[in-house]
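User: For my dataset I need records formatted as: sequence, then structure tokens, nothing else. Please produce one.
Assistant:
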Amino acid sequence: MSEPEPTPPQNPSGSSAGEPLADNQSNVRDLGDVPSIEVISRAAVMLMSAAAEKLGLAHEDPDNAPNRDLDEARRLITALAGLVTASVEYLGPHAAPLRDGLQSLQRAFREASAIPDPPGQGPGEKYTGPVY
């Protein structure tokens, strides 16, 4: 009996990795055509959303949210802080809302922690400075 052939990885459009995206899918663009600010903003929004989920903010009772995981939230918030801080000069009008969202997550993390980190040592604060 022979082993089945491995299936090449698929990108979101359904074509194999390395193949061009299908022309008939108007909502899928070639990554080379996407402006860097859009890539950075989308990455930031994904990190924000994931951190909010891990903090339990999407659940009716965050303290009992099934996906609550403060260790994971810390990692996501720190990654977001690094991304926003490193790219702030390119973000233009997008910078302020992303910074506000980041600070909200940092505050929510502090409130969710049984023993809050000292100011300046919370998630991402080595990049953003202390958040109170």
